[in-house]
Amino acid sequence: MRRFSISSLLTEALNGHQGWERQWRNPTPKAAYDAIIIGGGGHGLGAAYYLAKEHGLTNIAVLEKGWIGGGNAGRNTTIIRSNYLYDESAALFEHAVKLWEGLSQELNYNVMFSQRGVLMLAHNVHDVQSFKRHVYSNRLNGIDNEWMTPEEAKDFCPPLNISPDIRYPVMGAALQRRGGTARHDAVVWGYARGADALGVDIIQNCEVIAITRGPDGAVTGVETSRGSIKTKKIGVSVAGHTSMVMGMAGVRMPLESFPLQALVSEPVKPCFPCVLMSNAVHAYISQSDKGELVIGAGTDQYVSYSQQGGLHITTHTLDAICELFPQFTRMKMLRSWGGIVDVTPDRSPIVGKTPVKGLYVNCGWGTGGFKATPGSAHVFAHTIARDEPHPINAPFTLDRFRTGRLIDEAAAAAVAH
Amino acid sequence: MAQSNRLPSGGRIDRAKPLAFTFNGKSVDGFAGDTVASALLANGIRLVGRSFKYHRPRGILTHGSDEPNALLKVDRGPGRADPNNRATVIEAVGGLKLSSQNHWPSLEHDIGAVNDRLSPVLVAGFYYKTFMWPRSFWDKLYEPKIRAAAGLGVAPDVPDADRYVHRNAHCDVLVVGAGPAGLAAALAASENGRRVILADEQAEMGGSLLAERTATIDGVSAAQWVAHALTTLAGRANVTLLPRTTAFGYYNHNHVVLTERVTDHLERPDPKLPRERLWQVRPAEVVIATGAHERPLSFADNDRPGIMLAESVRTYINRYGVAPGRRIVFATNGASAYAAAADAKAAGLDVTIVDTRPESAIGPEKALAAGIEILAGHTVVGSTGGKGLTGLIVAPFTAGKGVGARRTLPCDCAGISGGWTPSVHLFSQSRGKLIFRADIDAFVPGISVQKERSAGACKGTYGLSAILAEGWAAGSGAAGADGSRLFAAAPATPTGFAPARVLPTDDDPKKVRAFLDFQNDVTAKDIRLAVREGFESVEHVKRYTTNGMASDQGKTSNMAALGLLSEILEKPIPQVGTTTFRPPYTPVTFGAIIGSARGQLFDPIRTAPLHEWAVEHGAKFENVSLWRRAWYFPKAGEDMHAAVARECKAVRESVGIFDASTLGKIEVKGPDAAEFLNRIYPNAWLKLEPGKCRYGLMLKEDGFIFDDGVVARLAPDLFHVTTTTGGAPRVLAHMEDYLQTEWPDLNVFATSTTEEWAVIALQGPKARDVLQPFVTGIDLAGEAFPHMAVRVGEICGVPTRLMRVSFTGEMGFEINVPADHARAVWEALYDYGQRFGITPYGTEAMHVLRAERGFIIVGQETDGTVTPEDLGLGGMVSKVKRDFVGKRSLARPDMALADRKQLVGLASLDGRTVLDEGAQIVADPAQAVPMTMLGHVTSSYLSPSLGHPIALALVAGGRTRMGETLHVTTPAGFTTVKVTAPVFVDPEGKRVNGVQTEGALHA
Ligand SMILES: Cc1cc2nc3c(=O)[nH]c(=O)nc-3n(C[C@H](O)[C@H](O)[C@H](O)COP(=O)(O)OP(=O)(O)OC[C@H]3O[C@@H](n4cnc5c(N)ncnc54)[C@H](O)[C@@H]3O)c2cc1C
Fold first, then answer.
1. CA triplet A344, A348, A353: central angle to 5 degrees?
2. Strand B26-32 to strand B14-23: parallel, antiparallel, or no bridges (unpaired)?
3. What residue numbers bound the domain in which A55 lies?
4. Averaged pLDDT of chain A
5. Do B590 and A330 touch (CB under 8 A)?
6. pTM to 2 decimals?
7. Which of B136, B253, B594 should we substitute to test contact with A (largest number of A Cβ atoms within 10 Å)?
8. Residue A23: its chain B contacts at CB < 8 A?
9. Which of A16, A121, B95, B704 is the 20 to 30 Å CA partner of B867?
10. What is this model's ipTM?
């Protein structure tokens, strides 16, 4: 792999950039692999990278039905934080944030992880109680998160309207300074390039249409739009389409899929210094490096696989954004889009083994799995390689819906992303 | 400034109405009917902006909404300034203040232009390859620098002075686009009384016909035909004409959303008018007649100010009476530019045509160019000039033989034409499938998914007669008539082009910078680099190079990149793919989208019938879901704490009065009502007698508590269900969900009656004394009307459902009265109650009182992970019922674990510290991080009745920890507590029966 650096960039600048290599190959699928990851999103490509890098499994492939990063990995609003309430989630997301902190160097790809701080607004007494609960819990878990008065919040985020006469005045905020954003495409491409360099085959335009199983029930391979491929281990990492792919192996998942929308404004000069979230009024906003205001909306009320959500959902979000930032009504929406998110009953992911031998699943990240990408990929690789979960993902079993040992972050705080 | 480039005559501008605005502080003259772009050009201004990345000088490229370069800040006065407006669509209005963007110190002298020198380094995706060392520099140095450089204009920083409104409309046929196809469609569709809406983004309807010099339709000039069509349409009562209105989004169920610019074109708008109006239209049928966009040509330095699209040159001349230059070179690969050249010549300008096609491939369009020099078989290899074009460098080119000797054609304007791209955005947004037509090198609508049809250039039809006929047929078809009509248009429209990706050059292709995406500064080289690096999917190329992601949404660049990609990959275009078009078609203001939903209308405030009384009595309020509720009633000099203490004391010692009207109320009625509640709640309902109340916890399927409330049985088939304030809509939806999907066999109706009944709570030892004189038809005596009874009777002469219930631990009544009579009843009770010191109390005192008595609040003691057993209310869950919502989940192994978090009380050991709600609880505060947390504080108050703090908490295995010492977080560290029972006042519950337990109460 040709290393990226300022010197390689300058060298190439003199050479008309003729010397850059492909960031990943375009291989034809082999007849068999030691393991297959279905889904070329951040989670799938990351898992392949760690399988090759940390577990020596290099004869593996990532199968992607379209182009890598074309799913939620390339559609999300890129909010990253780890100030989750429960020990299990805090450990998982903090594992990810620690990896984020060194990811550009690890991958030799600038993923633009920007720790600009994530500010979560409290608008009522219930929010205040809930956020303080988070702040205290995070403190005891060694995760940064601090409680702020409205004035302190405004100091940190000057555009914020803390006037007491808005519909839902700001009563305080929780700030995770280490939270922030990253460049989503770069994460996908960085993992793809890293995995490819370690020998992983990244196969695009290759849709899995069936999972084959042997007489003992264990997986034996997949049927794809590019032919059949044999393997003894399959890691499913297909986000919104998990129910469908797991259905191919006869496993019913406790998931519902919804369209989730986002939008960006036209690019403007820096005017928004951090990531701001308001769960009470349903608004998420940050400014991208390019200058666009990136705004996350909610999910549709009804389950669907249509990547086009209704305008009323975006409208509701912009209502909230303009209530908090009345100066933005003259800004313009440039693009809006949707992605299909897979939601579990307790709003926490499922990462682990399944009732089918050789079949592993990583799903249920719902509206908030981008932030987990490196951490999730890392422990999923461990699970696939060792056929047992990493201690960090051990609680995130499929079985918990049977036993009742839920990790209900949403119930605890009604927090989305 | 003088209008040096205004032609002496012609154009659709009104020369009798001059106007002036400023651009970067300098005055610019124009006429009514000008766009800002046409006025700038008339004043000889070519340099209008700087590009995003390289800060290259840029001019006006187009004459419409596809403009990538000419983005200006518009200032219409205080609170009315905004960035990134396209000069080509802003109507010239006297007094506007316009300025260019993205430069420092000035447009002419921009330091940022060093980026252009650095362009060999700043190629597509360069930032992914560097800025990684040292690690900490990204946040601190590199990123802030990149950010400061990025972004075009400056966001407004003061609230908007304008208003926006929404309008819903239904019609039979919505026609989008009022060019020839759209006009013909609207005429046909409206012939027989069908309701038609015709919308066009431009100020004037007529589309391309407004720029026709010689065309005639059915024997009259194009302009006359347009005027006649518009008169006809305006005369039909069933037609709504919406100029300045862009259809920006095509959503599911034929939902098309338009935005109408109402006042931006007015110098002194009526203040009653909104700035923009958003139309949500639900047409039965849609005719898309959105035309086509001309493609630029790609060659070295094709972005100099003065280079514009050939059709734009034509439009500025014919429609606006402006010469974009005096010496114009048209560079083209097809026929349409010949019409532009002919019109430029007719306007007296010096014209040359450079055609990339060999002489032999030039068709009948040649006749249009009589008297014009044509350099056939020539390529363009560059341009000259700095901040304005001075010449085009051309050279003969023969396929297979290469590029010949260069020569420079001096010019101050170049009209470039690379062919046409149908505007299929709305069709694609409707989820229709595009198909590729190689003969016109473009995607056109294929299979429809919704009720729409395309007509004219947006469908790849370019001849005027054919466009008109197609428009007519589409309009007629959409109206259900399937009529047809022929139109005689002359002269024949010059059509056809030989697709060219990047023009052949004799330069080192590694060095040539031929721009595809002008705004984002993406060159053909960048596309090649992306492919070299393995980005082969069109979406990857787009994301890696940012081609097509600028504010013009790729209208002039997408096709160019796609064509080039197909050439590099040696794959036909349809196999390379096209990107999906998503709303909006052009950027839409947030204001238009939100309409009037600001302030109070953002989320309507709900107030209870007694709200005004509370306002008059000085209450402070809190938001509780959509409601605004009285929080406490401070007397002069009292802070919240003092007020709440006084209110609580009054309830415990005498009587308090509280507005509980926000509680959700649902009337459950029908022969199966009891059976229904028996399934919805975990406790038993069948045997509850009419006249009695019961407390119910409602579970979700997962077995966790979801809502609670008292239910009164009024008759065998009638229950009055109460819910929490915030939970009312959820509970009704939950009930309906089960009634409609799980148990459709049950004969039950659930109706919200929250707003029908106001609820006045009278609580305290003297509650009955206050109530007694007003009630008729109900015996209030203890035995006759015990705790948890309900009676129907009258109070103050109005009907009441009177419940003997208590959420304070004191003897209490909840008086349901029709909302309209609430104030009269309340005032009667309040006046009479004065003799007992009756005290109005708010939600805060209510919270404290119930916590003293150990009553939970759903959402505070519960968080969606709590079972009845966890709260010590396991006894409420029937062991014998066959089924109820949540039963199966309660049987899961985890629900029986001993270490589940259970409700307990906490007493601060120091007797002073009021714990933080949300604080975490540990056994050993000295342990290492991450610590083992046992639970958290759910409620915490300084108890006025007891004179010391009380707290409720959920603690792992809490009920086995009575008396244990634990540690609770504080902002500074930890404080020590003892675990107690979660009831602090009157554990035996005697006070509700009027038994005084004074001993337990301190003052
Ligand atoms: C609008 C939006 C905003 C969001 N905002 C945030 C945020 O701010 N912060 C955050 O943390 N998270 C956010 N998320 C969630 C986050 O994007 C996802 O949780 C995460 O990206 C999912 O993991 P992934 O990247 O691997 O998924 P994906 O990128 O969706 O990867 C799954 C891949 O599987 C492929 N696939 C599916 N079926 C098959 C098949 N049969 N064969 C082969 N391949 C298949 C798909 O094509 C896709 O590429 C957001 C999501 C959306 C939609």
1. 85
2. antiparallel
3. 21-78+184-254+346-403
4. 95
5. yes
6. 0.95
7. B594
8. 533-535
9. A121
10. 0.97
